[in-house]
């Protein structure tokens, strides 16, 4: 069975060992121990990849934990429905943020045009 040291995973995913230990502390990863050394299995590596992907997509650690729990208890139908709900929520939030950004960009463009116009008017006087 393929195993990994914490430093191997940290290097592969370009994160700190402290981050990996944090995910272990909050119950998202469950490495075995060989004395004081953490031994990560393929399952831990996959979970770490999913944690990082979830965080990049805006999932909270609580949401990631909930999805893992559904997966662990073999509730794939429930897990997929929950995942769809979370995705819908994230998309709605991002859409609102995008709308807000577009409003601000438009206001900045108007302010910029006024500044250029004022500069042009002052050059002719």
From TrEMBL:
<dbReference type="GO" id="GO:0003700">
    <property type="term" value="F:DNA-binding transcription factor activity"/>
</dbReference>
<protein>
    <submittedName>
        <fullName>MerR family transcriptional regulator</fullName>
    </submittedName>
</protein>
<dbReference type="InterPro" id="IPR047057">
    <property type="entry name" value="MerR_fam"/>
</dbReference>
<keyword id="KW-0238">DNA-binding</keyword>
<dbReference type="InterPro" id="IPR000551">
    <property type="entry name" value="MerR-type_HTH_dom"/>
</dbReference>
<dbReference type="GO" id="GO:0003677">
    <property type="term" value="F:DNA binding"/>
</dbReference>
<dbReference type="InterPro" id="IPR009061">
    <property type="entry name" value="DNA-bd_dom_put_sf"/>
</dbReference>
<feature type="domain" description="HTH merR-type">
    <location>
        <begin position="3"/>
        <end position="70"/>
    </location>
</feature>
<dbReference type="Pfam" id="PF13411">
    <property type="entry name" value="MerR_1"/>
</dbReference>
